[in-house]
Write the structure tokens for this entry.
Amino acid sequence: MENQHHVPETVERFLESTLESVDNAEELAVGMAQRAGFDEDDLMKIGMAVRESMVNAVVHGNRYNATKKVRFSVASNSQRFTIQIADQGEGFRFEDVPDPLAPENIMRTSGRGIFLIRSFMDEFQMRHLEPHGTEVTLVKYTVSK
Amino acid sequence: MSIKLNTRQVGDVSVMDVAGRITLGEGSSALRDALRDMVSKSQKKILLNLGEVSYIDSSGIGELVSGFTTVTNSGGQLKLLNLNKRVKDLLQITKLYTVFDVHEDEAGAVRSFS
């Protein structure tokens, strides 16, 4: 996509560890992505990547703990649409996530979230936070390369 | 809109029309409960019509897999009908498309149950 008249936009929220926050984060990110000029297909991909990342933060990271928050931020400029999601959980080893496409895992009922995020976004990074927590960074390019 | 489920009988095939979002929480648990209910009533031929499904996440995909396994293990068959492009794409990239018996025409799908 090409967007010559993009207005930079940044938001940051500290969200409760609830499924309602998942919906709110998805809605906020998709709204910003729409204003950034992404098409329907990319909006679906961005929305789903945010949903899967938020579910990981709320369910697997913070384990619905009401005392823990999810930091959610979106920054949109003329080149990159960047989403960061950080939980306060115990973290996990990325290497321990089984490959959902391996024949022995195809019929598993879970474990496809990170695979879908990586499929839908142009960049995906994950880092452990001190003293605890996991932060993921998702990027979709605003300008076609 | 969350999820809406409606079950009807076409001959000996139970058709479940699914509409809305199959996502973690209400959507995926409603689908799981409905499928388990059908299995508990010894319904062996189940056709899931996903034509009106607007959104499905990884949890929803997991429920489809779980439903397929539950029905198959009880000696039944679960087939899918009317996948929209998004659901079809998701099943393809997760390599699940060939696991399910997918149909585009209800009459043909009903006939395909042996």
Notes: Chain B has one domain: 3-112. The longest strand of chain B covers residues 45-56. Chain B has a mean pLDDT of 94. Helices of chain B lie at 26-40, 58-73, 85-93, 106-112.
